[in-house]
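Quick one: structure tokens for this chain, please?
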Amino acid sequence: MKILIRIFVPIRTFVCPFYVILMRMSTTNKLILDIETVGEDFDSLDHATQENLTRWIKKESGNEEEYRLALQDVKNGLGFSPLSGEIVAIGVLDYHKNEGAVYYQAPGQKNEETKEDGISFKQMTEEEMLRKFWELAARYEIFVTFNGRGFDVPFLMVRSAIHGIRPTKDLMQARYPWQQRNNSAVHIDLQDVLTFYGASRRRGSLHMWCRAFGIESPKSSGVTGDDVGPMFKKKQYLQIAKYNVGDIRATRELYTKWEDYLSF
């Protein structure tokens, strides 16, 4: 007599970790962020600092005119480094709610908090802005920027450290999404992913990417990042904050395009 014994072996479904990341990205909290910065006044810097900043242009300039132009570039570029610049506005936007805030500096003014089209404008010092940002960041898992790895996030983290503030999230921990699957913070730098992590030779500005995808560019109003310094000197603080809104709105729309058509 033969006895037939059926053995049932459970089949485990393998799910690619990267696919899990993409599924989680579509539903979890996402924060769009962007900053505006200004540089210190070069003429107010101590002699040693001025020498440090200009040593190389003295060696490379062939004549007085070349030196003058190079020196102006140095002065204009002080806002690109957290060592010689500061943050004057931080824009944050909840991706799903499409609501957010801009924290901004306005020295010498006492502006009340206002709200327009789902964006709150809150005057703060740089230290207060940074503390508020990291407090908010602790509640999010996905962070979306444009050139955030190359500029915004390193600037935020270093300026925070200078003020004695420890970031609540490490937004520079890993570059690629599949490296970030166990992280509490996934950072999607749109300039990075849209150029396939440097595979494309030309990276393109936010304006150029918006133009290509039919998104209203924050530069279409005539204001660019280069105008922030002069505007700050003219005490056009709220205008800077409103310009920042254009950046975070455009970044949100560009992220949607990437997620819909280029996120695999």
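The chain has nine helices and seven strands.
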